[in-house]
Amino acid sequence: MPIKAIHYRKILLIASPGAVTLELEKKLTQIIRVNHKRFTLRQLEPAVEVLLGGGVVGAATESFYSLMVLADRSQALERLKSLKGDRDEDQAFLLLVDSRQRVMAYAQELPIEAELLMDKFWPGLLTILLKAQSGLHPLILGSNKSTVGLRLDRFPLTGALVRMADRAVTGTSANPHGKEPPKDAQGLLDYYTDLVDLVVDSGPAKGKKPSTVIDISKVPFSILREGAVSTKEVLKVLPNFPQ
């Protein structure tokens, strides 16, 4: 059974005659509420501060609520692994970007097939695995630690957080391994009250299916998970895609 990491805000030293007592004050999850159709960047500043400080933010994407940490924060990624629980060691955390330009901060190359898929399905629910740049954290690397999964999300809050932090964020669903992904902030809090630093409550998420995951890093290409984008739809873009 995985051990849950509990984070604390303060360590209090209480002195009494002949003894010193340690008391830990538990860190509480901060909640900010925004309208995803009408929000200001200033409203998101607390979330960005948490991300830049190596914290964990829960927020909606176009599919479900996700647990977000910055792709270059090693301790935050390790903490995310603990929060997700008993995952396959080879299961990498996928990244959310705000543009194709940011893709090249994490991928070595952008094959024509990837560009065609992006033209059709981005922004949207298609995660594309590409050959990874060197130096990325092992927890965001798949396929023998040589690929990175990237997706451009349609939900406006996601793009705003990435742009403000100037880095990709993880897009893993906000549920322990084996549990249902939450569709609202309360569902996330039911799993992770006081275990994440901040939750952006923007109302219910709209998604019914997770993203489809396709590996374009090697030939033959392969669909690792079929979700919102069907194999049939992929074949319309890449007719020679192996079935």
Task: Describe the fold and architecture.
With 243 residues, the chain is of the alpha/beta class. It has one domain (29-237): DHBP synthase (Alpha-Beta Complex), CATH 3.90.870.10. Helices cover 26% and strands 25% of the residues. It has 7 helices and 13 strands. The chain has helices spanning 41-52, 74-84, 100-103, 112-121, 156-165, 185-192, 231-237, and strands at 8-16, 19-26, 30-33, 57-60, 65-68, 95-97, 126-131, 147-152, 169-170, 172-173, 198-201, 212-215, 222-225. A 6-stranded mixed beta sheet has the order 9-6-8-7-12-13. It has a 5-stranded mixed beta sheet with strand order 3-11-4-5-10, sandwiched between helices. Strand 4 (57-60) and strand 5 (65-68) form a beta hairpin. Helix 1 crosses helix 5. The longest helix is centred in the N-terminal third of the chain and has 12 residues, at 41-52. The chain is globular.
Summarize the SSE layout with pairings:
Elements lengths: L7 E9 L2 E8 L3 E4 L7 H12 L4 E4 L4 E4 L5 H11 L10 E3 L2 H4 L8 H10 L4 E6 L15 E6 L3 H10 L3 E2 L1 E2 L11 H8 L5 E4 L10 E4 L6 E4 L5 H7 L6
Parallel strand pairs: 3-11, 4-11, 6-8, 7-12
Antiparallel strand pairs: 1-2, 4-5, 5-10, 6-9, 7-8, 12-13
Protein traits:
single chain, 243 residues, alpha/beta, DHBP synthase, six-stranded mixed β-sheet, five-stranded mixed β-sheet, 7 helices, 13 strands, globular, disordered N terminus
